[in-house]
């Protein structure tokens, strides 16, 4: 039986209080492939009440009990791995290989890193005659985006469970099916009633209600900076903790001593991964001024190697963007780049040749971009790369840091000491040197308007805990 038109509340699949449905569009076909129910304040009330009741007992479980539960979730996740990948491919248009190897893998990776960190996590520390203890914060509202659905669901749910919290999850209504599969996994794994709850719906009707709810103790939100501000304001009246992972406009500094062809080529691939729909994508490539034209030539070749098309084809490595709204936004920003005088190296407006439907964007490279241009300042969230020139190392760092965002930064150099020195001056939550492998044990989160708090591994567990000092505890 499909659970697409149900919510998961208090260990059961239930219908919404007030029936209302929403079509889920496959961005590769522009057609609905299923529909979901969307909730209201009444559904949120039910889910929060279930989580609040469950917290009374779940918060008193031992770390060993919660560790065993997470390991069982991991086992069932692996059993449903292909279902997750196919759900992500249908709702996002992700090529199947990418849906398996990156999207579904991300959820698995975060489960494994949370389990690994949890195995040695200390919930108390003696300081003289004071005992400092870490306790679960309470009922947590988790609001996740469409671009990396399992990545963001798991890196919130897993550490919350490890901490002893209970949760209400609202996945993105644009890509909700993978979240429903995850709820099925939690049910099959034997998560106690009320510990994990799922309500689908829109931001105004469900997300903001969760954020402002009197019985919610914390909100963990991932999405745009604009939406994050709305969530924070909704949460402010009840003075609850708000952890946010928001937008980015990450700079990729290619230093003069880098292996230039490799650095530029990998930079293009990093920008275009997930069809450019990653908040930490290296979307601003900074190159020495005297090698700007060389960078454009290399980037053009790298961009034109991408095969855009049917996500079910083994030849495809670039799918559509997620929605008509996103497609239109990207087209507008590409047009803005042309209007403001950037050099269109490849790509541009419209769909790639031979594709007449689907939200497909032409892989696009802009050169001669200046830091004040719109495409250098706004988050595009599509396969669009801006190449910017710099005079020297200090100038590169200045340009890189000249943004309201601070999620990620990238540095390429054959001199690791130089790369580390530049990294120390970057105002970003993560700095990646020479395109390292994805590390789910690293912290993830941003400076400035890219958010607050940190996710992944033990950093994520910490965000779901309160600190209590028991003074006069004794020797």
From TrEMBL:
A Pfam family reported for this protein in Swiss-Prot or TrEMBL: Aldedh
UniProt keywords, alphabetically: Metal-binding, NADP, Oxidation, Oxidoreductase, Plasmid, Potassium
GO molecular function, one term: metal ion binding
Domain Aldehyde dehydrogenase residue range list: 13-470
Family: Belongs to the aldehyde dehydrogenase family.
Name of the protein in question: Aldehyde dehydrogenase family protein
Species of origin: Shinella sumterensis
């Amino acid at each position: 039986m499909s659970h697409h038109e149900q919510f998961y509340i208090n260990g059961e699949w239930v219908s919404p209080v007030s029936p209302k449905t929403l079509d889920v569009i496959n961005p590769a076909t522009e057609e609905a492939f299923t529909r979901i129910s969307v909730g209201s304040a009444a559904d949120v009330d039910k889910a929060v009440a279930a989580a609040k009741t469950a917290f009374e007992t779940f918060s008193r479980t031992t770390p060993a009990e919660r560790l065993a539960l997470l390991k069982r979730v991991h086992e069932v996740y692996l059993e449903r791995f292909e279902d997750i990948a196919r759900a992500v491919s249908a709702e996002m248009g992700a090529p199947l290989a990418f849906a398996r190897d990156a999207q579904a893998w991300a959820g698995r990776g975060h489960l494994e890193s949370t389990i690994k960190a949890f195995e040695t996590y200390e919930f108390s520390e003696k300081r003289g005659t004071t005992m400092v203890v870490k306790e679960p914060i309470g009922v947590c509202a988790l609001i996740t985006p469409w671009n990396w659905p399992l990545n963001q669901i798991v890196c919130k749910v897993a550490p919350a469970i490890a901490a002893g919290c209970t949760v209400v999850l609202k996945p993105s209504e644009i890509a909700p099916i993978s979240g429903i599969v995850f709820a099925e996994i939690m049910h099959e794994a034997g998560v106690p009633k009320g510990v994990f709850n799922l309500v689908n719906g829109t931001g105004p009707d469900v997300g903001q209600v969760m954020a402002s709810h009197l019985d919610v103790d914390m909100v963990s939100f991932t999405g745009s900076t604009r939406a994050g501000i709305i969530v924070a304001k909704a949460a402010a009246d009840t003075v609850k903790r708000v952890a946010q992972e928001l937008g980015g406009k990450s700079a990729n500094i290619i230093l003069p001593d880098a292996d230039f062809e490799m650095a530029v080529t990998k930079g293009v691939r990093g920008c275009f991964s997930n069809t450019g729909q990653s908040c930490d994508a290296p979307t601003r490539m900074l190159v020495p001024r005297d090698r700007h034209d060389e960078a454009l030539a290399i980037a053009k070749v790298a961009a034109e190697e991408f095969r855009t098309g049917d996500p079910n084809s083994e030849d495809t490595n670039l799918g559509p963007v997620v929605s008509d709204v996103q497609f239109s936004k990207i087209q507008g920003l590409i047009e803005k780049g042309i209007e403001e005088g950037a050099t269109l190296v490849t790509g541009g407006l419209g769909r790639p040749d031979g594709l007449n439907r689907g939200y497909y964007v032409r892989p696009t490279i802009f050169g001669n971009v200046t830091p004040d241009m719109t495409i250098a300042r706004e988050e595009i969230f599509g396969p669009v790369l801006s190449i910017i020139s710099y005079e020297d190392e200090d100038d590169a760092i200045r340009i890189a840091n000249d943004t309201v965002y601070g999620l990620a930064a990238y540095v390429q150099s054959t001199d690791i000491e130089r790369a580390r020195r530049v990294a120390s001056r970057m105002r970003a939550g993560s700095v990646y040197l020479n395109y390292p492998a994805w590390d789910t044990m690293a912290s993830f989160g941003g400076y400035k308007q890219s958010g607050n708090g940190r996710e992944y591994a033990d950093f994520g567990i910490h965000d779901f805990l309160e600190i209590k000092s028991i003074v006069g505890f004794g020797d």
